[in-house]
Amino acid sequence: MARLATRQGEGDRLAAAAIDTFGGNAAGGNVVGGNVIELDSPQHRRGGLNDRKFSKTPRINPRAVALAVRVADALVIAAAGAVAYWLEPGFSWPIDPTAAFTALALMAMLVRSPNAEPRLLHDSLRRPLSRRLADCALRTLLPFVVGVLVLIVLVPAGNAVRAPLTHWLTLWGMGAVGGICAVRLGLAALTAQWRRQGRLKQAVAIFGTGDLAERLLGRLRQSSPDAIELVGVFDDRSRRRIASPGLRSLAVGTSDDLVALSRHRDIDRVLVALPHSAEQRVTEVLKKLRQMPVEISLAPDMVGYNLPFRESDELAGLQLVEVYGQPLTFGQILLKSAIDKTLAGLALLAGAPLLIALAVAIKLDSKGPVLFRQNRHGFGDRMIGVYKFRTMYADMADYDGEVQARLNDPRITRIGHFLRRWSLDELPQLFNVLRGEMSLVGPRPHAVSMTVEERPNRDIVPDYALRHHVKPGITGWAQVNGHHGPVATEEDLRARVRCDLDYINNWSLWFDCQILLRTVKIVLGQRHAY
């Protein structure tokens, strides 16, 4: 009994410490009535998600910071080389071919792409500034030292180019070290400011309420209080089965609640704190949680907390086992988004006369607004309003897609038949692309109330939510493979989802280009829509 009382006391202290350390409301202002998550039901959110409950200070994306620092490094190194070349009297413009080749070789060694898991912000939080500056200076200076040694070994002493090249590399190395250190000093100042503002925290949810979860919370509180925003602790077991009073007070819902919460607010990582020996339970939990487009990791088993603490590990010095993550890297997402918005903007400018003409035709054909905004599933299963030219009579509008369009549908107007036949009703979705809600290419967004043979989509295809791990598209791999128009049968839905997942798993820029070209060919050569 004494041991149990001590254990309960430790649990209470853990709960109080966790709430005080990670924030007073573990679920971001969404824990009410005995720690139960209360979410708005989709049928009451026609105007879009109500995110005001989850508003908080915008957080900094570490991958974006890593990319920006790499670009800054490249710019200051190139600028230092140009200035050193200009200061060297032995060189003249245009640039000497030998110097140009040397510069390219050095830049290739110095400029590196960001790692898959950037460490810059982690280092800024954990390592002393003096050590970070010394490491950067050494890494930057080393290629120049190697370059000078190669020149001394390979170029004869009497060669006219040896002295100016050596002098230039020396000046360039000094300037590059100074520039890189200046970038790191600027990063340190920004990091300190972001840290004070609470913008460097990862939103982390913990699944599990046993001994492992207690150990995990203790480690996070000890080593990463300024880097973690605790979303909450989740478990499928009933609250009365949670032994620790501390974890019982932090528990805010089940795995289904966690998936639902991810549709309303950003969650960066889910840590599954279950014993690795409970293979079946872990597998079942992971199958549920993989619906979320977030990083899902297994926390270490008990022995992992007894290993030496390593600051180089990503989160609280723990050896995490990454199970699921986003299908596209940050660089791929950035590239895809930049191309999407550029092409969408150009298409809207070039097609402005056509859009205006279609808008006038719609207005003259029937009463009602020109544009129609339908609620559909977007990235992360979140609801977005997808724009289309109105093709149905205004009093018959179906905002949630409860009834799919069919052949000779009486709801469709005269101009609506023409727009659907040529897929012109989809053109306003270019505005969704500019808003960042959609992509040019991706899985087509389905209406929130869509059913097939009177069954919800996710009941027919268990992996249905995985198609929402990327932004939806105006066109997609399923559409160019013949799966367009209404979804009539369950097999048709399964075929579309297979195509969508095939696209996500094999994404490339060239793949997108192929789909766009095939889409143009299909639109011009076929009449498939109702």
Labels describing this entry:
530 residues; alpha/beta; 3 domains; two-stranded antiparallel sheet; 14 strands; 11% strand; flat; disordered N terminus
Question: What can be said about this structure in brief?
Answer:
This protein has helices at residues 2-22, 62-87, 97-110, 120-126, 129-154, 162-197, 211-223, 245-250, 255-262, 279-289, 330-350, 352-365, 414-421, 429-434, 457-460, 477-480, 490-505, 509-525, and strands at 31-32, 36-37, 202-207, 228-234, 251-253, 269-272, 295-298, 321-324, 371-377, 383-389, 439-441, 451-452, 455-456, 473-475. It is α/β, with parallel strands linked by helices and 530 residues long. The protein has three domains: 2-36 and 201-324, Rossmann fold (3-Layer(aba) Sandwich); 62-196, no CATH class; 330-525, no CATH class.
Can you characterise this structure?
The chain is of the alpha/beta class. The chain folds into 3 domains: 159 residues, 3-Layer(aba) Sandwich (Rossmann fold); 135 residues, no CATH class; 196 residues, no CATH class. It contains 18 helices and 14 strands. Helix 7 links the parallel strand 3 and strand 4.
